[in-house]
Amino acid sequence: MVASRRAIAGLGDGLIGAPAFGWQLLDRLVKKSATVRAMSTGRRLTPRGEERRAQLIAHATRLFATKGYHSCSVADIVEGVGVGKGVFYWYFPSKEELFVEILMAAQTDMRRRQQREIADLDDPLDRIAAGVRASVYWSAEHRDLFHLFEFAATDETFADAVRIGRNTIISDVVRHLNAAIAGGRIPDRDPEKLAHAILGVSTLVTLEYVHHQGGPPEDVADMVADFCLGGIGVSQPS
Amino acid sequence: MVASRRAIAGLGDGLIGAPAFGWQLLDRLVKKSATVRAMSTGRRLTPRGEERRAQLIAHATRLFATKGYHSCSVADIVEGVGVGKGVFYWYFPSKEELFVEILMAAQTDMRRRQQREIADLDDPLDRIAAGVRASVYWSAEHRDLFHLFEFAATDETFADAVRIGRNTIISDVVRHLNAAIAGGRIPDRDPEKLAHAILGVSTLVTLEYVHHQGGPPEDVADMVADFCLGGIGVSQPS
Amino acid sequence: MVASRRAIAGLGDGLIGAPAFGWQLLDRLVKKSATVRAMSTGRRLTPRGEERRAQLIAHATRLFATKGYHSCSVADIVEGVGVGKGVFYWYFPSKEELFVEILMAAQTDMRRRQQREIADLDDPLDRIAAGVRASVYWSAEHRDLFHLFEFAATDETFADAVRIGRNTIISDVVRHLNAAIAGGRIPDRDPEKLAHAILGVSTLVTLEYVHHQGGPPEDVADMVADFCLGGIGVSQPS
Amino acid sequence: MVASRRAIAGLGDGLIGAPAFGWQLLDRLVKKSATVRAMSTGRRLTPRGEERRAQLIAHATRLFATKGYHSCSVADIVEGVGVGKGVFYWYFPSKEELFVEILMAAQTDMRRRQQREIADLDDPLDRIAAGVRASVYWSAEHRDLFHLFEFAATDETFADAVRIGRNTIISDVVRHLNAAIAGGRIPDRDPEKLAHAILGVSTLVTLEYVHHQGGPPEDVADMVADFCLGGIGVSQPS
DNA sequence: TATGAATGAGGTTTCATTCAT
DNA sequence: TATGAATGAAACCTCATTCAT
Lengths: 238, 238, 238, 238
Description:
Largest sheet of chain A: none
Largest interface: A-B, 42 and 42 residues
Radius of gyration of chain A: 19 Å
Oligomer: homotetramer
Order of helices and strands of chain A: HHHHHHHHHHHH
């Protein structure tokens, strides 16, 4: 549980005005088994242990993305790594929590990528465009994780975890939108709705053109950015 | 299988230039068990039977949407209707095929709604806006079915069925976009990509504001339509 | 039950010295359900009813032989005839008893055929050879029933029924063997054992060459007769 | 699958001119489930595991022979050994494959016995007689396995497996028959047909006298050998 | 740390049989 | 006579999790 919290701690970094999603949500996500408590009392892993853990995460990610969470058994995961079943429960309290961990790490990573791409830009519209582009690129490079997001959003069990991450992204965009509105660059419309719309465009177009059709991310990124700028009301150069 | 085909027949109504999705996809979706064949080769249901079947579909839809497909067992379904387990398999060849049937019926219904709302409009941009609004309204009125779409899209097993329906919607929009481009109303950009973007906006904004936050569909419909028109390049009046 | 008894009544015709298998065996085979009792109180079938019954028997025989008794459901049977499930239980008290009835009718028919072919012959060795040939021909003409025998012999439930029929055949052969021994035509060895051996040859060779390899029954009949005559000790012409 | 192949490997030992049954047949028999692959790709069993597995096989064999394959559930099997249901699927991929494994092991064992009894004999007729006797003895000592053969031969699902084993025995006998024919010891008749006839005699007489009537195997073995030698045309000493 | 073994509830599906109409 | 509907026990199999070693 503590581990999980740590995992998503990065999400809040430098986040101003972030909504208070609170840890209650997360706490609901994580069942408190004996193992969990053992885990949370600060177990240190040997280097070899860290590697095993990473192996398991890597393979589980691939399997979850390929066959789906429900169709992928713990047996599948450990078999792929070539270890016994007990090992899994040494490193993770449950299949469910492993999934949450992967999910949150992915969300953190994706956001970091966005932040990095935006860092040098001052103009709010530029930041939005760059952020959108970054998310397309990231999705292209992390097919598996992208699929995990998609699935997790539809499963009652993980819906909360998804919302936490999604809201973080949303509030980033909202800040830029507010700046743009304040600067008179775009009409004054509900920035949260706009942010969700942007996310929607980015998600579905990437899904279809990058993942299904295997097109080049550059083109998709351009198209998505264009569409979104138009959508939020930037007058087109024609 | 025959029944399933009939179920989605409406999707193609009056569709000119629709891509050839072919029935192969569908055929793969629907396993040809003995039961299926029995079903398709003319089983007549009595009025009482029709009612039972409808009950089961209704309750299953609710459960699938609430607990998720994988977390909802056949036992749950029949228990809710108050019948024995065998009854389920009297009316449906499997849990999987019931889900596909619900899915396809929903897609057909949703498209019918769009067509109806569009029928009186001549202007392609008006048709797009009206279609988008219709989909928001429909989603608002059919929370359960909307959730089913979301889930089905993420599950390998149903991905094909979803794509069939989605592509039908997409090609509707594409036709209107082509008309708008031909008429010089919007810039000449890849209409399929634009259509996917429109779908993305509609989906995610509806999900968040209508379903999660419970807002009024009218506002959401307006916002989505505005955003999409801007996105495809309609110059804003303001 | 009465019906079943009637069905095998022919087996005893003109049978001298037949072992007393008794009806106890049969009675154990047939469960006394309410339906059975109704059946046994002498229900008359209309001509149409007789036809339906015959249709069901014919189709069931084919299915039992093709898919096996256990893999063939009552649903399969009635579906093939195009009637409802209730009809089945109108004509037969159970799936099990239908099978027994088919089995016994087949045994009777097979024996009738043997008797017919033997009728004109006086020499005991000729009668044995003709009987063996007749059984090969009959098996060739009734693949389905032949398979039913094979299966029934291995299933605890029907083993008794099979033994009854088999013993009838055996005792026929035994009579001829005794005559041959008495006449000094063959060495004096246990005629029952010899009869079983003859049955074994006939069964397995027919199975392999007529049914599996689809060879001409004439050749097989010759070979089997030769082998059996040699086996019982007829000195070969060389 | 690999395991199964190993199981019947012994059947081919020293077999010259054996028909090419090919592994295709076997491959069809053995479904390639994930479990099977896991099994075949080197799962090591601990001594305790080996013992459990053997217990299960032993008890399953007894049950299959007693109640029949279809009437014996996995629940019955594990209950008899006093373990949970999952244990069964830890050791065997399915009930069906367990049966095939038992079947093939039995066939191998039976053939080994024959080979052993024949080893010291040079005369082809002696070898045939000894082989026949060996099969009677083996059947007497392995009632259960003998019944399994009988059943398996009648079930579509296992028919192929049975034919493989049966053909191996047949081709052994055929070799000896060919030698006898070449040496002018018996008339020149189709050796394969003769071999099937021998098998038939041996099977049915053993079934009746050893298993049903519980007679001494010695007498039966003598009788069967006599009958078969006569059948293939050895002139009787009178 | 790690493993193979074990658990047992729960999943989907089948099917002989009965019953109301 | 006949049908469609219903039953419900029981079949095979899966899997997250625990445990002894």
